[in-house]
């Protein structure tokens, strides 16, 4: 059976029509320039970059991150960052990435400010984004995370994702300088 590729214009139309996306306690929305200070606080907080395999973000990178604008899904690897808002305050963000247009695959990633972790916000936001990815036509949705990131693994498992791969010492983490072991968890709706 032939599987049609994800159509970029339809992906963008579906995402635009869904935002802002409201859950019981949260609003998922585009990031905007006035989010800069909040994003800087939680993204560059001590220990946060450990899980993203990146060094602290520069001021210019943070400004680009929060510049706003419409999602663009033109090719494999294109991603859009959504702000996670609770009671009017930005508490984190969530990435929705097209990993393969041709194979209809997407990836979710999330980060929350340390002071709101453990309250179920990551699961609630990721569940809404997973439902959106499915509406966008994803055949398979993954979470790619560090094996030691137990909290994010629990979020992925709560979404119904199961472990598909474990890659030992597959990347050097720029935040720590150490080799890390990656996990791929996935759900096929």
Q: Mind sketching the topology for me?
A:
Layout: H1 8-18, E1 21-22, E2 26-30, H2 36-43, H3 59-65, E3 79-86, E4 89-100, E5 105-112, H4 121-135, E6 140-146, H5 150-158, E7 162-172, E8 179-187
Parallel strand pairs: 5-6
Antiparallel strand pairs: 1-2, 2-3, 3-4, 4-5, 6-8, 7-8
Tally the helices. 5
Envelope shape: globular
Strand order of the largest sheet: 1-2-3-4-5-6-8-7
Helix content: 25-40%
Mean pLDDT: 93
Number of DSSP-assigned strands: 8
Major beta-sheet overview:
8 strands, mixed
Low-pLDDT stretches: none
How would you describe this protein?
- The chain has 189 residues and is of the alpha+beta class.
- The protein is 26% helix and 33% strand.
- The chain is built from five helices and eight strands; from the N terminus they run αββααβββαβαββ.
Attribute tags:
189 residues; alpha+beta; GNAT_dom; Acyl_CoA_acyltransferase
Short description:
The protein is α+β, with helices and mostly antiparallel strands and 189 residues long.
